[in-house]
Amino acid sequence: MSAPAEYLREEELDHNLIYEVASFPGGHKIFSCQQCGSCSGSCDMAQDMDYTPRKMIEMIRAGMRKEVLGANAQWLCTTCYYCTVRCPRGIEPTEVLYAVKSIGIRDRGVDPNNDSPKFYETFCDTVHKFGRQHEPTLMAIYAFKGNPLRLMGFAPLGIGMLAKGKLGLAPSRVKNVDEVRKLIDRYRNKV
Ligand code: SF4
Ligand code: SF4
Q1: Which partner for 104 in 8, 87, 110, 173 could form a disulfide, CB atoms 3.0-4.6 Å apart?
Q2: Could you give the C-alpha distances from 170 to 9, 79, 134, 137, in angstroms and in order?
Q3: 34 C-beta closer than 6 A to ligand 1
Q4: pLDDT tens per residue, range 15-29
C-alpha cells in the first residue's frame, strides 16, 4: 500500500541535512530545539512563510531536504533576530535560516521561480567589486538577471532618491577594496 501524499518515505529523507546546518556558524545548537514555537510566535514574517521557523527546524531535523531548500521562509526572514533573542534553548533560528540559504544556493536547490538568490548574489557581487553597495548597479544587474521589465517598477523610487541626492550615479570604490574582497572570497570558498 502506498503512503498518503502528505507523508514522506524514509528513502526520501536526508538525515545529513541537520549536520550540514549544524556545521554553519550558529547552527550547532539546532539539536536541542524543544519545539516550543516561541520563535514562530515572535516572527513578524511567519504569516507569509510557507513554513514557520519552528517548523523549518523540525523539517531540518526530519531530513526533509527538498522541502526545506525549496521553502520561502529563509528568503522572507528579515534577520531581525527576535526569534534568536527569545529562544529559551539558546538556538539561533536566524543563523539556521542563513545556513539553509547558503546550502540552497550551493546545491541549486532553491525554487527556480524564487528571485531572492539572484538578488543576494548580485548584492555580494556589487560589494565585491566596489567594497560597498552601489544601488543603481545592484538594481540594474538584478533586473537584467531576471525580468528587465521590473526596472520600470523601481524607476520612480530611483528618480526620487536621485533628486534628493540619496543616490550617486557613478559608483566609487572604498580604499582597501581588496580587504573586503578577501572577506567575501573566504566565505564563498568555505560554503
Ligand atoms: S524558540 Fe527555540 S526551542 Fe522553541 S521552537 Fe524555536 S528554536 Fe526551538
Ligand atoms: S530573524 Fe527571521 S525568522 Fe527570526 S523573527 Fe526575525 S524574521 Fe523571523
Answers
A1: 110
A2: 54, 30, 8, 9
A3: yes
A4: 999 999 999 999 999
